[in-house]
Write a structure and sequence with these properties.
Layout (H helix, E strand, L loop, with lengths): L6 E5 L6 E3 L3 E4 L11 E5 L5 H6 L4 E8 L1 E8 L5 E6 L2 E7 L6 E6 L6 E9 L11 E9 L6 E2 L19 E2 L5 H7 L18 H14 L1
Antiparallel strand pairs: 1-11, 2-5, 3-4, 4-11, 5-10, 6-9, 6-11, 7-8, 7-10, 12-13
Length: 216
């Protein structure tokens, strides 16, 4: 497992992922041929006709430091819906139904760079084929960068790009930062005074670009 600087891809058996409820573990066979590292956790367990429809309550949680996170599930015809929460707020629902065993991926929006908690729960809403099984393959998050762009000051009331809301904070690195920031003409408080001259203008773009190139 990596720290919040570089990010990490966590296999389903990584100890950082905490499981509660009727989860089972599959390694080898059972659709693991397409799984990351050949295994996955599934809920409910055991997979019987009685428990597939009744045994709900599976939860998987992981704390991470970063600006984005993705969830990899294994889809199939007997899969149901998974609900995704970040910091206690529901941010998505993933339908695991697919015609064949394959990866189903969910991606978060860009988050404020910092420490967050991801929670995946088994929904009480059945999938397309009546299934309720959720199969977790991996979790992957993007780190904040070891030396992100530092805000010299905040421009506007909306806060700077990627969670930079106060002078001296470090913003996370991402391919959309230049487009998002400078494409909107500096509106919404998203651009910052990169060269610390108390003015947000094209000179700050040159400063921003130089720092960006130094990072890649």
């Amino acid at each position: 497992m990596a720290d919040g600087v570089t990010g990490a891809k966590l296999n389903d058996d990584d100890p950082a992922i905490k499981y509660s409820g009727p989860w089972g573990y599959q390694s080898g066979g059972g659709g693991t041929g397409v799984a990351y590292r050949g295994d996955y956790h599934y809920v409910p367990a055991p997979l019987s006709g009685d428990t597939v429809s009744k045994n709900l309550g599976g939860v998987a949680e992981v704390a991470f430091t970063g600006s984005k996170i993705s969830v990899g599930l294994l889809g199939w015809v007997n899969r149901g819906n998974a609900e995704v929460f970040i910091d206690g707020v529901k941010v998505g629902s993933v339908d695991g139904y697919t015609g064949q065993v394959q990866l189903v991926k969910w991606n978060s929006q860009t988050l404020a760079c910092g420490t967050h908690t991801l929670k995946i729960t088994q929904s009480d809403t059945a999938g397309k084929n009546g299934g309720r099984i959720v199969a977790l393959d991996y979790v992957e998050y993007s780190g904040c960068g070891s030396s992100g762009f530092v805000c010299a000051k905040v421009a506007g009331s909306g806060g700077n790009q990627n969670g930079c809301t106060a002078a001296g904070q470090s913003c996370s690195l991402g391919p959309s930062e230049v487009d998002t920031c400078w494409g909107n003409g500096g509106g919404n408080g998203r651009c910052y005074d990169c060269n610390a001259d108390s003015v947000v203008n094209i000179l700050d773009f040159a400063c921003f670009a130089k720092r960006w190139l130094n990072r890649i």
